[in-house]
Design goal:
Layout lengths: L1 H15 L10 E5 L2 E4 L4 E9 L5 E7 L5 E7 L4 H5 L3 E7 L2 E7 L14 E12 L7 E7 L12 E4 L2 E3 L5 E4 L1 E6 L5 E4 L1 E5 L6 E9 L4 E9 L5 E7 L4 H5 L3 E7 L2 E7 L14 E13 L10 E7 L12 E4 L2 E3 L2 E3 L1 E6 L10 E8 L2 E2 L2 E2 L4 E10 L4 E10 L3 E3 L10 H5 L3 E7 L8 E8 L14 E14 L7 E7 L14 E4 L2 E3 L3 E3 L1 E5 L18 H12 L7 H4 L9 H12 L37
Parallel strand pairs: 1-12, 2-13, 14-25, 15-26, 27-39, 29-40
Antiparallel strand pairs: 1-3, 3-8, 4-7, 4-9, 4-10, 5-8, 6-7, 9-13, 10-11, 14-16, 16-21, 17-20, 17-22, 17-23, 18-21, 19-20, 22-26, 23-24, 27-28, 27-30, 30-35, 31-34, 31-36, 31-37, 32-35, 33-34, 36-40, 37-38
Helix pairs in contact: 5-7
């Protein structure tokens, strides 16, 4: 049927084209030579060489189907596509393929044609049907009278005449050279992680596949069970995940792990594959170090080895699937280095600074808000005789001199006999703010040996007031940190130390803090519609929010009577104030913006009115 259709169309075109005389010069069709590697898809072209305009053509090409598989025969990407053919008919058959093209097949028959000279008129697409082990060649041949029904001949139409081999059309066959692919390769990457248990390392599995696109794979990696733990095998962030793997199974063992993946496992079978490439990340193996290594001990490097028939139950091989065939890639090991870390301090004392605003530890505060800076210690096995604590802090904070308190502290309970603190809040000298605190438990006769006890929990040393200055910008961190060699208000440079067994210890852990300055919403009490004035519309907004779902941006503003709830009572309260000489809405009142002095559970305002420096 295909052949009949093309022949009928050619006959119709020939009747519509005026004969301009016979064509005497030689015309030719040539299949370009091509080269491919492994199972890589490739394209080649049919080239027309002519001395006159061409109105249409038929191509019939044969190939060895035991060597090649045809996937497409079209004009895509050719000169004919850019000219604009009006009829294109292609067929892929057993061992052959045909393409019929008429450029001007529809009314008004405006004479579209391929100009004389050289033009590409067809694109042939193939994939190799087999993997060769040595270079080999196969032919792409023009074949007349064999393919389609009725069988088609190779011909071109010029000046209304069909020209084939009999009329002098030269047909030049092409050659495809097939070359063996480089070996496929599966290798483990390498990496490092601190050998203190604080982190894990994601080591990539890297695939180099030149044979062809990969439809699935199995990976089996072994490691030393005494040195490492395999925490997880993941496809997250890999090429495998991005192309859309539909089946995945992983297994973790003490000495290794396996993963099996099928890319296109479920209907509608869209043909997902990992394309040909080099060092493509197809999976991650996540490891942790089993043992802490302290300097000066050496780092520990552990091999990560792809290995066949060793890991798994039953043991698995490392394979990739290409063209439905399971192939064994070459394998390369990687490694994970567990890096030695600094040993812990000689003494395991820990001194911590922690800010507290309104009982909310989390170090969030408004500009102008005052909280406390609390100092804690813990030491599970030492009795502490005293401290020198030296702290620096950002200049948009003020530590309030004279506010040091031992209330509720272990120091007050034991009874310190010497206590002194200094606050240098002047940043005009180019320094930060400075706080110095000195505590000695047993400083006076009869010298009874008071000490702070060993503890596994943080115990309070003391507290001092800290205020976020009005100059502090919102969404900034104001740091409070332990620092050495500061002189406070004096001339002696002091440093952090703990007195244990009459020794001055500086080698211990200190944990800093910071205050995150956040916006404090300000509003007018009763301004429920957020238009910066309080009137009857706000009473209506309260009713609309309660009974009609009208959105509001500041719940505290709608709470006109400041009882912590929004209900009809707030609307009545507003109307009584507006029209019946009722009480004025509570602070911040209906006329001036301000913050809510009452703690309640109403949601935070979603407005642009804040108390932040540098913000409206």
């Amino acid at each position: 049927m295909m052949g009949t259709c093309i022949q009928q169309v050619f006959a119709a075109v020939c009747l519509c084209v005026l004969l301009a005389g016979s064509v005497t010069a030689q015309q030719s069709l040539t299949i370009a030579d091509a080269t491919t590697q492994g199972l890589s898809e490739f394209n080649t072209e049919v080239v027309l060489q002519s001395t006159a305009e061409t109105q249409g053509y038929v191509l019939a090409v044969g190939f060895d189907s035991s060597v090649l598989t045809a996937t497409d025969f079209s004009v895509e990407g050719t000169d004919v596509e850019s000219i604009g053919a009006e009829l294109i008919a292609a067929e892929i058959l057993a061992g052959g393929m045909t393409l019929g093209v008429i450029l001007d097949a529809q009314s008004p028959f405006d004479g579209t044609a391929i100009p004389e000279g050289e033009s590409t008129v067809g694109r042939l697409s193939f994939t190799p049907a087999t993997i060769v082990t040595t270079d080999s060649t196969t032919q792409l041949s023009f074949v007349d009278g064999t393919f389609n029904s009725p069988p088609l001949d190779n011909l071109i139409v010029q000046n209304g005449l069909s020209l084939g081999v009999v009329e002098g059309l030269i047909l030049n066959d092409g050659t495809v050279t097939l070359t063996p692919p480089p070996p496929d390769n599966l290798r483990m990457g390498s990496g490092s992680v601190l050998a203190d248990g604080s982190a894990v390392a994601d080591i990539p599995v890297l695939l180099s596949n030149s044979t062809g696109p990969v439809q699935g794979f199995v990976v089996a990696i072994a490691h030393g069970p005494d040195e490492l733990t395999l925490e997880e095998i993941s496809l997250a962030g890999t090429l495998t995940e991005s192309v859309g793997a539909e089946f995945e199974v992983t297994n973790l063992y003490a000495d290794g792990g396996t993963i099996g993946v099928v890319l296109d496992f479920m209907p509608p079978f869209d043909g997902q594959v990992i394309p040909i490439g080099t060092d493509q990340v197809v999976a991650f193996y996540r490891y942790s170090c089993n043992n802490i290594i302290y300097l000066p001990e050496a780092d520990l490097e552990t091999p990560l080895t792809p290995i066949n028939n060793f890991i798994g139950e039953p043991p698995l091989e490392n394979v990739i699937v290409v063209g439905g065939l399971s192939l064994n890639p070459s394998l390369e090991a990687g490694s994970l280095t567990c890096e030695a870390v600094e040993p812990p301090p000689e003494h395991n004392t820990v001194v911590t600074a922690e800010a507290d605003f309104d009982g909310s530890v989390g170090n969030y505060a408004f500009s102008g808000q005052t909280g406390t800076l609390n100092l804690y210690y813990r030491d599970p096995d030492d009795e502490i005789q005293g401290f020198t604590i030296t702290i620096c802090y950002d200049c948009d904070l003020t530590i309030e001199d004279g506010t040091l308190s031992l209330e509720g502290s272990i120091v007050a309970e034991i009874g310190a006999e010497y206590l002194n603190h200094q606050v240098d809040d002047d940043c005009s000298d180019g320094e930060t703010g400075e706080l110095i605190l000195a505590i000695l438990l047993d400083a006076l006769p009869p010298f009874e040996g008071q000490t702070l006890p060993p503890t596994d929990e943080d115990l309070l040393i003391g507290s001092i007031a800290v205020t976020v200055d009005e100059t502090a910008e919102c969404d900034e961190l104001q740091e409070i940190y332990f620092c050495d060699d500061i002189n406070g208000l004096g001339s002696v440079f002091l440093y952090n130390n703990v007195v244990i067994d009459y020794q001055s210890i500086q080698d211990y852990e200190r944990i800093d803090t910071a205050i995150h300055v956040v916006p404090e919403e300000i509003f007018q009490r009763g301004d429920c519609n957020s238009d910066d004035k309080v009137d009857l519309a706000d009473a209506a907004t309260v009713i609309g929010s309660q009974f009609q779902g009208l959105p509001i941006s500041c719940a505290d503003a709608c709470d006109a009577n400041d009882d912590g709830f929004i209900n009809l009572a707030d609307s009545v309260f507003l109307m009584n104030w507006l029209f019946k000489f009722g009480p004025t809405p509570p602070d911040p009142g209906p006329f001036d913006n301000g913050s809510d002095p009452t703690n309640d559970e109403l949601p935070v305002c979603n407005s642009h009115d804040t108390g932040c420096a540098g913000q409206p």
